[in-house]
Amino acid sequence: MNGGHSGAGLAPVRVPADPVASPDTDMQLALLAAIVESSDGAIASKTLEGRILSWNAGATRIFGYEAAEVIGKPITIIIPQELLDEERQILEQVRSGRRIDHFDTVRVTKDGRRVDISLAVSPVRDARGVIIGASKVARDISERKRAEQALRDADRRKDEFLAMLAHELRNPLAPIRYALAAAKMPGRTAEQRKRGEEVVERQVAHMTRLLDNLLDVRWCAVR
Predict the structure, then answer these.
(1) C-alpha angle with apex 127: 46 to 92, nearest 5 degrees?
(2) Which of 68, 115, 121, 188 is the most exposed place for a label (fewest CB within 10 A)?
(3) Mean per-residue pLDDT for 136-151?
(4) Domains of the chain listed by start with CATH number
């Protein structure tokens, strides 16, 4: 997990001292609430103790919990046991005023599925600049992770095939070399020469099939 103050990511959130001070403030807050609620990403806020304060529709879509089910509960309900220390590190950084730019991690849905997400966290400050909580934005990156795994699997299968191909191409060389050496020996009969030629033809045909298979693999790889 990497934290920092780089330009990318979330800006620190400030909470107005009096959110009903003016019609303009009401409109800004309503617009902000609409943006948060309509976001495809999961947007949630929590206290500095890690208890959930808000939960948008995107969070419901990704994690399966309705807002009423999680408000007031610890954020650890969606964190795998082995990543609880990650959450402690996040809270420590938030308390010190640092935001955490997007990093890849894993969370757990209501039905127990593990979901790959990209997570960013930013401190929430009140009108005096005091940090009072944290806002979190999570994007479901499961499709990206599956695509990355598919590429790794394809590379592994390609490497295995090429290793097998190299081995299989070497095997016919020994009989071919033997048949050619035998053909140069004096006193060879017509039958012996014929058998030698048949050995070479079989091995060449075998190598041709292997090369054809290799070309088929390369063709499939670029389609």
Answers:
(1) 40
(2) 68
(3) 91
(4) 13-140 (3.30.450.20), 146-222 (1.10.287.130)
